[in-house]
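Question thread 4412

I'm putting together a teaching handout and wanted feedback from people who do this every day. The idea is simple: show students a protein as raw sequence, then show them the structure tokens that encode its fold, then repeat with a second protein so they can compare. Below is the first pair exactly as I plan to print it.
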Amino acid sequence: MSETYTGVLDRIVDGEQAVLLLEDDGDDDGAAENVSGEAPRDRTAGGRPTVVDELVVGVDALPAAGRHEGAVFDVRVETDGTLLEATYRADAEGERRESARERFDRLSERLPDE
């Protein structure tokens, strides 16, 4: 049996290992264990997806176009933690970058003087 997650490439270690942060898509009831066999972490973060686990895979297991920090994937993971499939989602990555830029812009605006 396998699970599907949104995976975000957090970092590449020594040019060989990719660390994917797996996010809850909100499709289940929250009772399932994550790929490391632990109970999932809290899944509520102000409406944004929450990291429920991380997965370390060889960089070569990822599509070449997505081998950079911040890349977003649809990932299918075997219950034992084996990566079965990773599909790069350039559109989702662009949306996340734009959202982060907008959030930063809002936070960097001066508050009105009272």
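The second pair follows. I'd like the answer to focus on this one:
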Amino acid sequence: MLKLVFSILVGFVIGGYGFNHGADLTAFEAYVKAFNKTYATTSAGTFANYYYIYNRNQVNQHNAQQDRNRTTYREAVNQFSDIRLIQFAALLPKAVYPTVSHASTAIDTTDPVSEIDIISDLGMNVTVANQGTNCSSSWAYAAAKSIEIMNAIQTGNLNPLTLSAQELLDCAGMGTACTTQVPQIAFDYLTQYSNLLTDVEEYPNNNTLKTQGMCLPDQISTGVQLATYATIAEGDDVSLQRFVSNNIPVIVEYNPATFGFMQYSSGVYVPPTRIRTTSSQFLVVVGYGHDTDTGLDYWNCLNSFGTTWGENGYIRIIRSDKYPLAKNAIFPNTF
């Protein structure tokens, strides 16, 4: 009986939002159009409407605090604003790592500079990827993007072709490409079997798939050959800074299961001290610096949520001993 009353109450509350013909409904319709949303059923649309309004209100409350300098970053409505935080976390399951590593000794580096932004300092033209909302594929996008950036630097081509994450998903995914896979598998696919990583013109990305596709080797005729990769010890942010300072894009595993990360828009993101859920999103660290507005040091990281998320697809994360970033850090080493 109690369960029935609860279900009726939830249905009433959600329905109240779902059939609001005022400003809330107009805003939701604009959101659906802006982010090309479709829902399988009327019920799914009603739930999406409810959570969009709830998340939008949370964003507004957070930004009101930021206006008073009580937080260090801003939030915004984005492609995830029509789902619950628990659903967002479930889209990005905890990564599972292989027991054997083929990592090599890292290339020599010099002492770090005070600040750097690999992309802007070198004037590189790097396209921000969008992994979509169907597949936990950041491992493949981060691997492809790190190789693309480092190879472009080494060859002097500052307008590189975008390398194919879809090739890694299809050919190296090992059945878990959309769930728990990791960048090391992408690097092993390239280094241990002498495979080429081709560009998206030959092997297009497809972020609408919910599972990996069939590997198409006939579409891989040209590309980049990665010789070795290297890793950084857990929590060793000193080494992370040194490698990034030497124009090496480093992939790190990050726990995105917070409302602040899900709706991040700008500023220096500081995670809460307690995060209830553990998820995995792989980011490419491409710089670090100091933010004068907040007085905080930060890491600049390239994500794969597209340009409508964060600072045109990037996120600045607090750089502090209290919040070490070098988690399962890995990077392309030699070509």
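Top answer:
Good format. For the second protein you could add a caption like this: The radius of gyration is 21 Å. The chain has two domains: 2-71, 91-334.
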